[in-house]
Amino acid sequence: MKTFKIFGVVAVVIGILTALTLESCSAEQVAAYKNKSGAQLWGENCIRCHTTPSPAAYNDTDWDTIGLHMQVRANLTKKQAKKIFDFIKSAN
Amino acid sequence: MMKKLILLIFLGFIAIGVKAQNNDFKSSKTQFMIRGYGHMGYESIKTNGNTESTYDGGSFSPIFMFKHSDRLMFESELEFEINEGTLEIGFEYADIMYVLNDYMTIRGGKFLLPFGTFMERLHPSWVNRMPTKPLGFGHDGIAPGSGVGVELRGAFRMGTSTVNYSFYNTNGPAIKTPNGVEPAEAGMLAFNNLIDNNNSTAFGGRIGLLPFANNSTEVGFSFYSTDKVGATGSPYENLGANLYALDFSFVKQLPSLGGTFDIKSQYNNSKIDNIVYTVEEDPGVFEDLNFDNQSHSFYAQISYRPTMSGDKFLKNLEFVYRYSEVRTPEGSGFESNKQESAFGLNYWISWRSLIKLNYQSITGEGGHDVIGSFDQKGVFLHWAIGF
């Protein structure tokens, strides 16, 4: 029963967050967000936990492995992860 | 003629060598990689008037990653650490993950729990800006760190925001009892429950929202709930537990202030059903401990690094302050009420290695093996590296 109560609270929180975030998003803003470059995503996302990694630290094959690891650990979408690690591999 | 022949043979060897080299370095779909982190340091800690100074023997935490394909991966982390002169080996996680689609990944095994963000994302020594964990985490902590089970997680875009989520089912925690190794900790949850002790699992999850398009800010809500924490057949079997956490993160380079600000915070709350614990204080002397089994902890940390400075030395410096507190049930054997203030000065040698000079003050009451007031002052010098 307690578990269901907790799930209920979570559902309400999700609903509120959804309503808040969908408010006031213009088509241009959404397009700009979707078209972010890999370099921009690299700069914005890596520093959420640690410093931005040097592309030269690993080779392309290693970055592929690290990319899958970080996609899951950092909860990146597959598109975000692909853009970030394509950028890193192009710059190493 | 002879010279030409030798030259041809020589060129032939080079061609064979180059071909062999190309074959050697041709990448395969499956990859195995070892990464990880470690640290060493020196610490001087004065606790209730007694000073202990020692080199910290350090830690070594290798992470093994096996990428089977673009969707399938196995990862595991071990932790070797010298604690009070003894080598301790920890089994942090070992899980298999499969990317179902762009927005969903399933994983199973022993994995770090996304209860807040500190234990899952921020605890590695080269990521944590402080040499220690905030109060409420780690040994005697009230927040779960890892669990054995299955998890569904992912992220998706919503307008110009990003939502990430995780839902999991694990063996759940076990409650410490008066018959355990540490009777004084009766009523505390042990989260390293590798085998389910009561056929009742725990459900948990976290919802994170990055509301702004620049991904600078993240707020998260986590929960963790189970109907049973005691072993089957024991008087504690039907005790339930409900935990939740709120977390906040803001990281952004602010040109007007010439550097990067990093703010992290997390609040943890734990409520376990009440019961009377009869503890043997001395041989033949029993005491009933009846208390409201609710605990909470909180930490907030702010760091500033002048990343836009023209001076190379200055831009690698980082100033950190952290406040944390923990309160465990009054009247319990593990009663505590402590507050911590910590100041740090870090120097980043590279993007994954830093030296931390830190001063910490913890005051309050109770805690592990402490009755009455607690006063601890510590100076730490740590060198951490990720690899």
Mean pLDDT of chain B: 91
Count of helix runs of chain B? 3
N- and C-termini, Cα separation of chain A: 53 Å
- Gyration radius of chain A, in Å: 17 Å
Low-confidence stretches of chain B: none
Estimated helix fraction of chain B: under 10%
Q: Rounded to an integer, what's the Rg of chain B over CA atoms?
A: 25 Å
Topology order of chain A in helix (H) and strand (E) letters: HHHHH
Provide the domain count of chain A.
2
The CATH homology group name of chain B: Porin
Count of domains of chain B: 1
CATH architecture field of chain B:
Beta Barrel
Coarse shape of chain B: globular
| Share of helix of chain A, binned | over 70%
Principal-axes geometry of chain A comes out as: extended
Contiguous low-pLDDT stretches of chain A (5 residues minimum) are: none
What is the CATH domain class of chain B? Mainly Beta
The biggest beta sheet of chain B, please? 16 strands, antiparallel, barrel
| Sheet of most strands of chain A | none
How would you characterize the overall build of this protein?
The complex is a heterodimer of chains A (92) and B (387). Chain A is extended and about 45 Å long. Chain A has two domains: 1-26; 36-91, no CATH class. With 92 residues, chain A is an all-alpha fold. Chain A has helices spanning 2-22, 27-34, 38-45, 60-73, 78-91. Chain B is built from three helices and 20 strands. In chain B, the strands form three sheets. Chain B has a 16-stranded antiparallel beta barrel. In chain B, strands 8-9 form a two-stranded antiparallel sheet. In chain B, strands 14-15 form a two-stranded antiparallel ribbon. Chain B has a single domain, classed as Porin, CATH 2.40.160.10. With 387 residues, chain B is mostly beta strands. Chain B starts with a helix and ends with a strand. Chains A and B meet through helix 1, helix 2, helix 4 and helix 5 of A and strand 1, strand 4, helix 2, strand 6 and strand 7 of B.
